[in-house]
Write a structure and sequence with these properties.
Layout lengths: L4 H5 L2 H8 L10 E2 L3 E4 L2 E5 L12 H14 L14 H14 L3 E5 L2 H12 L5 E5 L4 H10 L3 E4 L4 H9 L7 E6 L11 H11 L2 E5 L12 H5 L8 E5 L9 E5 L1 H10 L1 H4 L6 H16 L2 H19 L4 E2 L5 E5 L3 H13 L2 E2 L1 E3 L7 E5 L6 H16 L12
Parallel strand pairs: 3-13, 5-6, 5-7, 7-8, 8-9
Antiparallel strand pairs: 1-2, 2-3, 4-10, 9-10, 11-12, 12-15, 14-15
Helix pairs in contact: 3-12, 4-12, 5-6, 7-8, 13-15
Length: 396
């Protein structure tokens, strides 16, 4: 078989494009936070991870422009060699202070933070135990490390304990969870997970990409539960609440020093751009001074979640900015996504293998009530057209 045969045989996406229901790589013409433009018309953005609405904040833009003018567009090298700026070092100190950990290490992306941390911390003689629903970057870091991998049922501390009890005596053990799971928005039962890890002598990494900047007055899932000191490693991304691009891992001085010299995605990747580093730093300052943004994002999600539930839709509610609506199948997901776009509302179409078919929506601190009402009205319209399944009779 020729290597490229699989490329020619991959027709699913091409068929969706030709039928007009392809829900990915949508080319937006502008992005103003709560709204965007597509094909010349304004669309309510209900599919962004810009949870605090900071991507167009003048303070973030000004900081990014100033760094661009001073340092240029790129550092053109890895931080290990020639790509490190005082800007990066200052951001690491700012992150450590804000999140309450001794030290931090900045990576080019959040994906790099997870991939580099997992592959550096683990080896073939260690064991990693993973919640089945964690982000793909954590899976990939484990594969890269060569460590034997075991899985426990999603958000199930008892199953985690059962898996850790089977681990070889004397092996290094690392447990991987998300703080907030991106598809449903559900929060990790961190107090129970921490207790199990401590009982079995396992270290714990929490990927808080969707919790940092939102929960715990912006300090994330660990702070929400008052457990920051008892979680060994926290990873996060700047591409969501912090209105930039990049990622970081936080932990002890020893752990961060080790990762600085062993994480391959740090050593062999160009550093985060000056403009991105400055934008993340400015966003952090805003989160610290304006914690109301965290509550506003959560309140907006709660408002829409309640509205969609009243419509009788199969809604997955959460205590995060994420609200998902289950669909019938992949085809139904794409058709419904297309119809919502026609009604001026953009959401995320989620298809296997990422998760079961659904429409994932997410909300910002800067969404106004009329944006949210338009989203609810659009879902009501597709429901009335028979595109979405109901779980209970609608109350309105």
């Amino acid at each position: 078989m020729d290597l490229l045969d699989k490329c020619r045989d991959f027709t699913l996406a091409r068929e969706a494009i030709e039928s007009g229901v392809y829900p990915f790589f949508t080319p937006f013409e502008s992005n103003d936070g709560p709204t965007t433009r597509h094909l010349g018309r304004e669309t309510v953005m209900c599919g962004s991870n810009n949870y605090l609405g900071l991507t167009k904040d003048p303070r973030v833009l000004d900081s990014s422009r100033a760094a661009l003018d001073r340092f240029g567009t790129s550092c053109t090298g890895s931080r290990l060699n020639n790509g490190n700026l005082r800007l990066h070092d200052d951001l690491e100190r700012q992150l450590a202070a804000f999140f309450g950990k001794p030290a931090a290490l900045v990576f080019s992306t959040g994906y790099h933070a997870n991939l580099g941390t997992g592959s550096a911390m683990l080896g073939p003689g260690d064991i990693v135990v993973i919640d089945r629903d964690v982000h793909a970057s954590l899976f990939d870091g484990c594969r890269m490390s060569g460590a034997p991998t075991r899985f426990f049922s999603h958000n199930d501390p008892d199953d985690l304990a059962a898996k850790l009890a089977l681990c070889r005596v004397g092996a290094g053990k690392l447990v991987l969870v998300d703080g907030v799971y991106s598809m449903n928005g559900d929060i990790c039962p961190l107090p129970e997970i921490v207790e199990v890890c401590e009982r079995f002598g396992a270290r714990l990494l929490v990927d808080d990409a969707h919790g940092a900047g939102v929960l715990g007055n912006g300090r994330g899932t660990c702070a929400l539960f008052g457990l920051t000191d008892r979680v060994d490693l926290i990873t996060l991304t700047f591409s969501k609440a912090f209105a930039s691009l990049g990622g970081a891992v936080l932990g002890s001085e020893d752990a961060i020093h080790f990762l600085r010299h062993h994480a391959r995605t740090e050593i062999f990747s160009a550093s985060i751009t000056p403009a991105n580093a400055a934008a993340a730093s400015a966003a952090l300052r805003i989160v610290e001074s304006e914690p109301w943004r965290c509550g506003a994002a959560l309140d907006n999600a709660e408002y829409v979640g309640a509205g969609l539930s009243e419509l009788g839709l199969d809604v997955v509610r959460s205590q995060s900015p994420i609200v998902s609506v289950n669909t019938r199948d992949a085809s139904n997901t794409m058709v419904t996504w297309r119809r919502l776009m026609e009604l001026g509302v953009y959401v995320n179409a989620v298809l296997p293998p990422a998760a079961s078919p659904r429409l994932r929506t997410s909300y910002m601190a800067t969404h106004q009530r009329h944006h949210l009402d338009k989203a609810i009205a659009a879902f009501a319209a597709v429901r009335d057209e028979g595109l979405l399944p109901r779980t209970v009779p609608a109350s309105r």
